[in-house]
Design goal:
This protein has 172 residues and is mostly helical. Helices cover 77% and strands 0% of the residues. 33% of the residues are buried.
Length: 172
């Protein structure tokens, strides 16, 4: 498969990931309430209006697409796992940075801006992953292991902090 064909396949996958992640993430905003506040559903859904809980809305759909992509496009990317991990991390960092910057400046938050941040964070993260996957850089066994450990760390944090949130503004 030629380089252009590889890039196109990766791009198409990332576009689908963006669209479905936005749809699934939006649904995850409501699933905890819809489930009657089921704790298991709460692991994957926003259980309150904190920024931390809203990070789940991008993290889980992007993670699921990263896992699915292991079977679809990993073979044509030189650094798939690392690119996906950095993309997910970039999405989370984007959300936190933009939200606290704009609310710090304005002194309040606005639903429409919060929704735009969510959408843009997924687009940003998937774009970063795409750009990294279409570079010539190769991954190493160590970089793959580190990337997987970072994703597992995030997963553990989302699970633990769903039930035992620290007393910090990010979780309020």
């Amino acid at each position: 498969m030629g380089w252009d064909m590889k890039n196109k396949k990766i791009l198409n996958y990332q576009i689908i990931a963006i669209i479905i992640s936005i749809i699934v993430g939006t649904l995850l905003h409501f699933t905890f309430e819809w489930s009657g506040k089921n704790g298991i559903i709460g692991i994957f859904s926003a259980t309150n209006e904190s920024v931390w809980e809203h990070l789940k809305l991008s993290f889980y759909p992007m993670l699921i697409f990263a896992i699915i992509g292991c079977f679809i496009i990993k073979k044509i990317s030189n650094n798939y796992i690392e690119a996906q991990t950095i993309g997910i991390f970039a999405s989370i960092l984007y959300t936190i940075t933009i939200f606290y910057t704009y609310t710090g400046i304005l002194g309040t938050n606005f639903l429409i801006i919060d929704i735009l941040i969510f959408i843009l964070s997924i687009i940003f993260g998937e774009y970063i992953a795409y750009k990294l996957m279409t570079t010539e850089s190769q991954s190493t066994k160590l970089s793959k292991i580190l990337s997987i450990l970072i994703l597992i760390f995030f997963l553990i944090c989302f699970i633990v902090f769903t039930f035992h949130a620290p007393n910090v503004n990010l979780f309020k």
